[in-house]
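Chain A, query sequence.
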Amino acid sequence: MDVRVLGFALLVSLLAGVLAGIIPAVTNSMLKHHENLKEGSIAPGSPAAVRAGDCSAVFVVAETALALVLLAGSGLMLENFQRLQHRDLGIDTNRL
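Chain A, predicted structure.
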């Protein structure tokens, strides 16, 4: 791998990370959250708060399920990789 290619990949990934972070920050800075908090628009126990709580619980369950699937898949992949490393290729590679 060439150093220029590695540098370009690093630059593009950093630029993508910065853009992905700046866009939500600018969007949220334009909103006036303090006014909504002063008004008490989402009071504890209100239907909006209950819906927000249910939605976050669904996201936590989905995230946990996805993490378990990814963990199981990565474990199987590592086991298969280790098995492939110790497989006999059928040729003598001692003096290569």
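Helices lie at 3-30, 33-39, 47-85. DSSP finds three helices and no strands in the chain.
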